[in-house]
Amino acid sequence: MLLTPWRNEETDLPGRCSSYQERYLLLCYAINEQVKHYAICNEDFSEIQQGMSRIEDTCDTILPCTQYLVQQDEAEGNQDLHPDFNKSDNLSDDLGIPSADLNTETLLINEFQDEYRHLVQMLNKEKKEFF
Fold it and tell me: Which of 41, 76, 83, 96 reaches 20 to 30 Å from 20, CA-CA?
């Protein structure tokens, strides 16, 4: 009876008939035609549903592994994998290349800062106030 148009359940569904069963027998041909129409759509819908479940099944075999790896990476975080290595260790000796540490020269700016600091400290109280 849901396949027939109605607004009020008590008046429209039974119509001029005395019972719902009598109304169904009166409209059974139209109802069966509607059911056939929806049965075609139901078959298409079930095919689409099976296709979607196949796609989900293929994704289920891929995603759990990926999700596990992502969770494992997040759990590890930023841990140092080799804490035994010295961060200031110079590998140039092991590789046989000249070290960059030997070529570093003291910057002239650093010397001037030290000299400037020493001169400021030598100023007397009046000169410091003026400065």
Answer: 41
